[in-house]
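Record minuted for everyone:
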Amino acid sequence: MESSAIKVAGYLLQIKAIKLQPSNPFTWASGWKSPIYCDNRKTLSFPEVRSYIRDSFVALISSLYPGAELIAGVATGAIPHGALAADKLGLPFIYVRSGAKEHGLGNQIEGYFEKGQKVVVVEDLISTGGSSLGAVRALREAGCEVLGMVAIFTYEFKKASDAFAAENCKLNTLSNYSTLIETAVATGYITASDVETLKEWRIDPSVWGI
């Protein structure tokens, strides 16, 4: 999996799904200042990258969760990735909204499922884990047995790992922040002098750059 994590990180940098700008930080919706911005939706525009992510998810799910009966994508970014993986696995697919619809049937979970089904949740990006675990809770409340979650990328925040542990939910990702930084240095995307800044940010992103 280590070589696969490097390849995914390389793809994300190559197609600019991830941008690193230590000297010119981004501002996230939360207000956090960040030297990194990740938009995994871009992976869908590149067939080679899209297929590699799909096949990597399929291999991961088949290895870790052979008893999976259902795949659930977290809206909106993980819907296509989850659907692609479910299709190749020959499993049904549903997706989970951040909250119940305010019109129509008022569903939070879209698609057909049955109580007791064993489900693997697919996510595109893990930051603090809040919205991702909201989907896990919704599925459990609906009667599904959540086996675990798989995602394309994680920032590896301690807050997220603590949240997943508290929720008793396993998390496995195709790549991660540490691998990304190593790959970015190795490919000349950033310089070694940028690494310290990037490491400092991940320790406490809520106060970085203030």
Remarks:
- Strands lie at 18-20, 26-27, 33-34, 36-38, 70-74, 93-96, 109-110, 118-126, 145-154, 171-176.
- Residues 73 and 95 are 5 Å apart (CA to CA).
- The mean pLDDT is 93.
